[in-house]
Design goal:
This protein is α/β, with parallel strands linked by helices. The protein has 20 helices and 18 strands. The longest helix has 17 residues.
Length: about 525
Amino acid sequence: MLSKWVRNILQATVYDVAIQTPLDFAPKLSARFNNDIRLKREDLQPVFSFKLRGAYNRISQLSEEQKSRGVICASAGNHAQGVAFSADKLGLKNIIVMPTTTPDIKVKAVKALGGNVDLYGDSFDVSNQYAIERSIKEGLTYIPPYDDELVIAGQGTVALEINQQWRDVDYVFVPVGGGGLLAGVAAFLGDVAPHVKVIAVEPEGAASLKAAIEAGDRVKLSQVSLFVDGTAVAQIGELPYEVFNLQKSDNSGKLIEQEVVTCTNDEVCAAVKDVFEERRSIVEPSGALALAGMKKYLSQNKISGKNCVAIISGANMNFDRLRYIAERTEIGEKKEAVFAVTIPERTGAFLEFCRDLKGRNITEFNYRARSRTSPDSLEPASIFVGIALKEGDKERHTIANSLHEAGYDAHDLTDDDISKSHIRYLIGGHAGLTDEQLFKVSFPERPGALLNFLERLGTDYNITLFHYRNHGAADGRVLVGIQATATSSLAVQDMLQEIGYDCTPVTDNVGYQLFLK
């Protein structure tokens, strides 16, 4: 007897607008990991995301009265495009509420698909509450992004297709934000193909499902990293979490351990590159998340000879983000490590250092001579160096040990985001200030946000260091130095948090201490 979920998925009305996406063989990845790896190409949907499936299934099954009144949703991403496209296809009135922080490229994309955009609120939570209130007031039907049976059933058609396309699948890796796609895939395969292991994949900075499993109940994350923006959700959906929890036993009643893989931003960047090298397609970070998780899971568990699918969930990439992604892929692939190394400030020291690396390739070298107290001063020099790796983390640790054995004071900065995102671009001299406090600040990436930040600081504080680069993401990131005491720095934090800017003191960062303080 079919379960309710399988029946809903089989009856889903998605193919009026969605396509059955291909399951592409990935020869390079398959050879590299000694597994048969295939990519479920949801980036090829008309709106370049799987979200179209759930949105259309929900909207198409409204009553005639509901259709006559129209629909509303809140989203800054792929759900907005799915709802706009679906409503336009059915000729329905639609309102797409998007935060005022939404980049213009996404607003224009929704409008191009027939969406009537209403910009409201500085965050998704505010926009979402406004959309719900407006739906009640105006009689519009609110279309949730993941917490809905018909939305989940629409997303579950991805699993239906995978099962039809490849009966011998062993693993399916699913990206997780609110959990609608995961719920649909787990519900279908758990009933129809229980031998298939469904692995959830989350960004390290937005791992709400992992937190819920560890706590035994849904929890709301206090902070969410926005780089993998398609899955940047603070709390797993109530219904998806319930559905996922139902998939705890196989047909024999044996309990199945639920597995969640979390990935760093660098690992996601590397997976974006993998998709490009396999299919010459550029996907968004959340689109490559499942593949990043697959690579990590297969490596850590030493799995070989299995049939594996990664769901490539979307390709709504802001082109400006490619610069950042390209910079981080080598580290994400564990093909590069970065170190801060102290060497003697004398002629020939760089040559000796290169010899001590025993033929390893240097990928980056940043250095600036410091002012000397006397012509004969031998004050040590700090260098920022990138080194190519052939054996991943194992070689990285070998290099660190060999540098220490050779007498160098070396710090591994490969996992230090402050150094990789800011310090490497600022190396050029020490300010010699004794009262400088360093802060990492995140703010919504919208016109005027940077000016608002500077105006909030006003003339009360002297800025001694500043580094900002636009990465084409929803959040902007600044490294700023301010002349302030440790006590007054607390006032700076409070002041910025009052306007919604996340501010973290990082004066103790090793990269800053070595190169800039």
